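Predict the holo structure. Ligand: zinc ion.
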Amino acid sequence: MTAVEEARSGCDHGCVLVAGNLVRLPDSDRWNVEVRLTCQGCGEPFRFRGLPVGLNLDGAAVSVDGLEARLAVHPAGEEPLPLGDHPAGFAFRPIELEERP
Ligand SMILES: [Zn+2]
């Protein structure tokens, strides 16, 4: 067991840093916040569960590694925009890979 693995195994993850980055997409009124969680005791990142992989400008998604949640937001006093000409985002779907002989 490495020193990092040993530190993580004894940590109760009682102090977690929440780091966010608010992004306003260029030439639009679209906002997205990227959120990451990291245990301050052992440095282990947290993985988000239950979100589709990709980017959804009208909802929530997660990075491929699951470590960054991407959440669509907008100022509370403004109405959310209809999709219009803006792309809604992208998503990845798991596929079954065929084994080759
Ligand atoms: Zn920890």
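Strands lie at 16-24, 31-39, 53-56, 60-62, 69-73, 89-92. The first strand starts at residue 16 and ends at 24.
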